[in-house]
Amino acid sequence: MSWPWSELGLPGPADLAQIRHAYAQRLKETHPEEDPEGFQRLHGAYRQACRMAKGRQRPAQSRRRKAGTMRA
Asked: Which tens digit of pLDDT belongs to each residue from 32-55?
């Protein structure tokens, strides 16, 4: 398990829904007022994980557009 997944408590790459759920769960334990550095690490991991998940979705969308199966 590597960052950002380990910071979010995920076993590895996940989709956006799983990332959001894991982030919400970890937010219950990591309060910005009590642990500002921990919160910044968690939020940074969340943002990076979302970017990575969106990057994995884009190639599939591009292939559908090229194939003409995506609606406008």
From this structure: 999 999 999 999 999 999 999 998
SS3 assignment for the chain:
CCCCHHHHCCCCCCCHHHHHHHHHHHHCCCCCCCCHHHHHHHHHHHHHHHHHHHHHHHHHHHHHHHHCCCCC
Angle, CA 16 vertex, CA 8 and CA 37 arms, to 5°: 30
Contact (CB, 8 A) for 30 and 42: yes
Tokens matching residue 10: 């995920």
Distance CA 63, CA 5 (A): 27
Residue 42 identity (one-letter amino acid): L
C-alpha of 45 from chain center = 7
pLDDT above 60 for 1: no
